Amino acid sequence: MIHHISPIYRNVLSFVIPAVFLFITGCDNDPKPDLIVDHITVQSWTQEQMLSSVAIRNIGNVPAENVRVYFNLEENPESQNHRPQFRRVVETVNVNQQITWSVYWNHPVNGLQHPDNQNLANVTGITIIVDPKSEIDELDETNNTSSVNVWPSP
Fold first, then answer.
1. Global pTM?
2. Helix, strand or coil for residue 55?
3. Which of 46, 66, 64 shows the shortest CA–CA distance to 140?
4. Cβ(124)–Cβ(75) under 8 Å?
5. Dihedrals φ, ψ of 20, to 5°?
6. Can you tell me the distance from the alpha carbon of 104 to that of 66, in angstroms, rounded to the nearest whole number?
């Protein structure tokens, strides 16, 4: 037995079936950036100086604008007043573009957000956070942080 589908139902089904399929499977073509820390490399580290390289990348499908990047120096023991932190803003990170910084800090550490943190002696690691305030709507909001140990804890 062959049933005939009326043109009205055929038109309705032509919209409903793809919509249900997209709802169930999700849509991978959502136009958003996806910012990651590509790598942190420490070339040298002493209590007097540090040389490192940091790279971020946009693995999303549209550019990201005004991207904040925080460079947190992890301490043991932690500073009483302020976390040692550098901040940068990148105007644009294009799709699949990698932005790399070479960072050289010398004792006393200049360029930190607060003058209380001028010593590298108690720094044990570096944490990089891209989009730390979640200001950019991304494909994945959980992949914006990476850390590396640089000095053994006392």
1. 0.72
2. strand
3. 64
4. yes
5. -65, -40
6. 24
Report residue 123 CA to chain centroid gap. Answer: 22
Do 96 and 24 touch, CB atoms closer than 8 A? Answer: no
How do the domains of the chain map onto residue ranges?
35-149
- Give 77-82 contacts, CB < 8 A, sequence gap 24+: 77/122, 79/116, 79/117, 81/114, 81/116, 82/113, 82/114, 82/116, 82/117
Counting residues of the chain whose pLDDT is more than 90, the rounded percentage is 40
CATH class of 35-149: mainly beta
Q: Report the distance separating Cα 27 and Cα 30, nearest Å.
A: 6
Give the H/E segment covering residue 90: strand 85-93
- Which residue's entry shows tokens 């070339």? 43
Tokens for 64?
């990201």
What does the pLDDT look like over 65-88, one tens digit per residue? 999 999 888 877 777 666 778 889
Tell me how far apart the alpha carbons of residues 54 and 126 are, in angstroms, rounded to a whole number. 10
